[in-house]
Amino acid sequence: MDNKITIGIPRSLLYYKYNTLWLTFFNELGIDTLVSPETNYEILENGKKNTVSEACLSLKIFIGHVNYLKDKVDYILVPRIVSLENEMKLCTNFSALYDIVKNTFKVNVISYNVDVDKGISEQDAFIKMGQELGFGKELILNAYKVSKKEEYKQRKINYLLQRKKLNRERTKVLLVSHGYNSNDNLVGKIITDNLKKYDVEVIYADIINPDNREKLYKNISKRLYWTYNQELLNSIEEYKDYVDGIVYLSTLPCGPDSLVNEMCIRKVNKKNITIYMDELSSTEMIQTRLESFIDIIKKDDIYE
Fold first, then answer.
1. In this structure, what DSSP letter does residue 177 have?
2. Which residues, given as ranges, of the chain have pLDDT below 70?
3. What CA–CA distance (Å, rounded) separates 199 from 214?
4. From CA 211, how far away is CA 192, in angstroms rounded?
């Protein structure tokens, strides 16, 4: 059979968490992939045009990336992830993405559905997706296992590199934000570029230890519903004694983040600043707020 199809992968949302898994999996099956470029203002504007105004900025950016890919590939990857562990959920956007894309664009979507609460594991979901693309189960399973090993290796490397940053004699700030925000060209990079300009070491809360199964988040909240927010709180607990301050970064109007960030501000004793981004956010205002925050941290460090 001819497997020379091209699958488009939006550089947004779960791309920043699963890109190694996805790209390795499709490569092992001999499928070409096309990843959309870094977010730019054209992508953002197209995302805004194709979503309701009430959608969060992160979702608007994702739709903008889908719009970029829709006429360039045979399929667009749009996973549907409901739950990754029993009695836990993700933001409803992640379970609705497939339907949102299908009802917005006339495109061929390839998807995989993970819902551990209903007994559908990630491996099961990948096997089904591979079969929909016309491959045999044995080949798919092998591709998945190779991809998981590569994913683990990359996550471990990223984590160990981050731990080394903690030994540097520089002001350190923990950026508490989902990877799809902290890595996005129009959202997180405005923050990280400015922090680095002020000679600050940025520690990313979304970079986690793949071997750690401790539920450190329970020191802040005994019961937390959203898996990805659990991971961020785990990082807060791991890094809070090593950093000089915390930047909470979210996109409006994110419900889970607004609740969880407020809880952390009240319960975590560390200097902090909260930044909410939307399509109207002023770069100059963000720069001013960050500069003031870093000045406060550095002055306090001098007198301690």
1. -
2. 1-3, 300-304
3. 32
4. 27
In this structure, is the dihedral angle defined by the CA atoms of residues 126, 131, 137 and 140, taken in order, positive or negative? negative
Q: What are phi and psi of 171, to 5 degrees?
A: -65, 135
Q: Is this prediction's pTM over 0.90?
A: yes
Alpha-carbon distance of 262 to 274, in angstroms, equals 9
**Secondary structure tally for the chain: helices H, strands E:** 11, 10
Q: Would you state the structure tokens that stand for residue 277, as one six-digit string? A: 């981004």
CB 235 within 8 Å of CB 253: no
Across the beta sheet with 272-277, the strand order is: 200-204, 171-176, 245-251, 272-277
Beta bridge partners of 200: 171
DSSP string, 62-88: HHHHHHHHTTT-SEEE--EEEESSTT-
What does the pLDDT look like over 119-152, one tens digit per residue?
Answer: 999 999 999 999 999 999 999 999 999 999 999 9
Distance from first CA to last CA of the chain, Å, rounded?
69
Q: What is the CATH number of domain 6-150?
A: 3.40.50
In the chain, which residues fall in CATH 3.40.50.11890?
A: 166-303
Angle at 161 between CA 170 and CA 246, to 5 degrees: 50
Tell me which fold the domain 166-303 belongs to. Rossmann fold (3.40.50)
| Per-residue model confidence as pLDDT tens digits over 88-111 | 788 888 889 999 999 999 999 999
Look up tokens 């520089």; give the residue.
Answer: 170
Q: Is the peptide bond before 210 cis (omega within 30 degrees of 0)?
A: no
